[in-house]
Design brief:
The structure is a single chain. With about 100 residues, this protein is mostly helical. Strands 1-2 form a two-stranded antiparallel ribbon. β1 and β2 (about 85-90) form a beta hairpin. It is built from 3 helices and 2 strands. The protein has helices spanning about 5-15, 20-40, 75; strands spanning about 85, 85-90.
């Protein structure tokens, strides 16, 4: 796959990036080099290789799913300028 100057300009327009004619020509070469490298990766044999999300073996740190704090609605509502039945009262913002 190769990129031409028109494609670079179109992508720049979609990304809302102003690109001069000289920059578009330079970027065309750079993007084609990047795409050439990606095409080289397609040639690598990956049969039998398990997918991984990290190169270092690690386990997720997990905590017990238990309530440790609670029943503090009164303390939290005490900071509110206006409240009712443990709910914040706010001004109406939509007519």
């Amino acid at each position: 796959m190769s990129v031409d100057t028109d494609t670079v300009k179109r992508v720049a327009r979609l990304a809302r990036i102003r690109v001069s004619e000289d920059d578009a020509t330079r970027m065309t070469g750079e993007l084609n080099a990047i795409l050439g490298f990606v095409e080289q990766l397609d040639e690598v044999n990956i049969d039998g290789v398990e997918p991984l999300n990290s190169v270092v073996e690690q386990t997720m740190k997990k905590r017990e799913d238990a309530v440790t704090d609670g029943n503090k609605a009164g303390e939290i509502i005490a900071n509110a300028p206006a409240s009712e039945d443990n709910f914040f009262i706010v001004p109406k913002v939509v007519e």
